[in-house]
Amino acid sequence: MTLQKVPVTKRYIDFQKLLNHIDSLGQVNPDDKNDELIYWLKKLPIMIDKIQANTLIHDIWLKYVSLVDKNVDIYSQLCSQSFSLVRNLFGTGEEDMPKLTIIPNYLQAAEATDSAIIEDEIYIITANPDKESIVHELLHHVLDKELKNCEDLIKENKALLEPVLDDMIQYQYAWAYDEGSWLRVFEENFMRASSIWVVFHNSKAKARTNAKLHEDYGFIYVPVILEEFFSNWNGLSNFREFIKSCLRTCIIRKNVN
Fold it and tell me: For a FRET experiment, which of 66, 144, 201, 228 has its CA 20 to 30 Å from that of 208?
């Protein structure tokens, strides 16, 4: 884990490269890739400089650093435990794991976790870092390639998006009844279920209780995918068959309603 204690001025080395990257992101609402976003990105470094030059902000920053200092050991321990869990349960080598930077934001809603993945480094922005959130972001890195190789299977089951579409649009995981939205929604359900399994793999009762909370928020496929992890997970080498099994249980869950 990296913890940055002093403000660092950022500059775009290649702004067009950044725009090309944003344009290449498949599981993002196309309407969000607009002129307003480009204008905001261009002005962002200037606004950061203004904030960092403000004397009031400087005093607030020092108070923030003092708060973070008290929790550095806790954050480091959480990261270490999360890395170990993911590596042990997924057989991932240390060289295949990403770098991880925790950015505590004590003004952010406790329930919210934001993240950014830049090459092999993950930035997690949260008010209260916890093991499940860290594991969740690590799994996005570890399983992203595997999921991409199964996109054809997932797209074939786009109908699974229908009963959760309104909730997923509200949470901004979907934007329409289309394949791109369903890929993102399935990925989020899958990642939530896999994160729960990793953190609570020694206690089905705790795992199921946690999964029920996600289901209550509209992620109705989390509990059934979780059960697949407990009963059918057989390693990354069997990932495609595992996804087929997960989709079958999701279909059953959809038809229950």
Answer: 144
DSSP classification of residue 162: G
Spatial CA neighbour of 234 closest among 94, 132, 91:
91
How many folded domains does the chain comprise? 2
Q: What is the DSSP letter of 98?
A: P
For residues 108 and 128, what is the distance between their CA atoms, to the nearest angstrom? 9
Segment holding 121, helix H or strand E: strand 121-126
Residue found under tokens 């599981």: 27
Strand order in the sheet with 99-104: 99-104, 121-126, 113-118
Chunked mean pLDDT (size 10), the chain, 257 residues: 49 78 74 84 85 84 87 91 94 86 86 79 87 92 94 97 96 93 97 97 97 96 98 96 98 88
Contact of 234 with 242, CB cutoff 8 Å: yes
Answer whether 0.85 is exceeded by the pTM: no
- In this structure, the answer to whether residues 96 and 173 fall within a common structural domain is no
Shared domain check, 112 and 73: yes
Query: Where is the domain boundary, 128, 158, 178?
Result: 128
Look at residue 92 and give its three-state secondary structure. Answer: coil
184-190 long-range CB contacts below 8 Å, 24 or more apart? 184/27, 185/161, 186/154, 186/157, 186/160, 186/221, 186/250, 187/27, 187/147, 188/219, 189/219, 189/220, 189/221, 189/222, 189/225, 189/250, 190/143, 190/147, 190/221, 190/225, 190/246
> What does the DSSP 8-state code read for residue 175?
S
Angle between helices 239-256 and 179-199 (to 10 degrees): 100
